[in-house]
Amino acid sequence: MEFKEIVEKNRSYRRFDQSRRLDKKTLLDLVDLARKTPSAANRQLLRYVISCSPEIDSRIFETLSWAASLPDWPGPEEGERPAGYIVIVADEDSWDWARVDLGIAAQTILLGAAALGLGGCMLGNVRKERLKGILELEESLAIQLVIALGKPVEEVVLEEVGEGESITYYRSEDRVHHVPKRKLADLVIRICD
Ligand SMILES: Cc1cc2nc3c(=O)[nH]c(=O)nc-3n(C[C@H](O)[C@H](O)[C@H](O)COP(=O)(O)O)c2cc1C
C-alpha cells in the first residue's frame, strides 16, 4: 500500500469482527513502532498496557464512550467489539510536551495497524479512574488514551466540506460512516513561495 492510501484507510473504526482476535505479538509490534517515534527531549514518558484477553477486554470496553456525535448509537454490540487494546499511560505530573508525544505515538500505532489490514479508534472519553483500577495501575500513573483495535467491519468514507458546512460525522442509512474533512485550501492559510 502507498503511504497516502494507508493514511486514507486509517480512519476511526468503531465496529470490528470481534472473533478475529489480536495476539500479543501484534500488539507488542505496534507498541514497538511507537517506541521508535520522536519524543520531546527524548524523555519517553509514555508507558503502554496491552490487552488481548477477552475477559479484560470486556472490562475495558465498559469504561469507554463511543461516537459522541451519534447519540442514538450506544457503541458496538457484542460480536462487533474491539479484539484488543493498547492503553497509553503516563505519570500524573508528566511535563506538557508528553501530550505531543502521545499524539505521535497513537497515530503511529494506528498507521501500523492500517498497514496490517487492521483498524482502530483512539478514545479519550474514558472513565479513567475505573480503568486504572481494572488495569491495576500504580497510583502515580494516569490513563492518557485508549486505542481500540481489530479487524474493521464498517465502511468509513471521507468527504470534503467547504467553509461553514457541517464537520459533524454521521452514518447514512446503509450504515456507512461519513467523516467530513475541510478542504486543503481552507487549511493552508498562507503560501510563501
Ligand atoms: C485525541 C482523540 C480522542 C478521541 N476520543 C474518542 C472517543 O472517546 N470516542 C470515540 O468514539 N472517538 C474518539 N476519537 C475519534 C474521533 O471522533 C475521530 O478521529 C473523528 O471523528 C474523525 O474521524 P477519523 O479519525 O476517521 O478522521 C478521538 C480522536 C482523537 C484524536
Q: What is this entry, summarized?
A:
The protein has 193 residues and is of the alpha+beta class. It is built from 6 helices and 7 strands; from the N terminus they run H-H-E-H-E-H-E-H-E-E-E-E-H. Strand 6 (170-171) and strand 7 (177-182) form a beta hairpin.
What letter string, H or E per element, gives the SSE order?
Answer: HHEHEHEHEEEEH
Characterize the largest beta sheet: strand count, sense, and whether it forms a barrel.
Answer: 4 strands, antiparallel
Mean pLDDT: 96
State the secondary-structure class.
alpha+beta
Bound molecules: flavin mononucleotide
What distance separates the N and C termini? 32 Å
Helix content: 25-40%
How do the strands line up in the largest sheet? 1-2-4-3
Which ranges are low-confidence, i.e. pLDDT below 50, for 5 or more consecutive residues? none
Proportion of strand residues: 15-25%
Radius of gyration: 17 Å
Q: What is the number of beta strands?
A: 7
Q: How many helical stretches?
A: 6
Give the overall form. globular
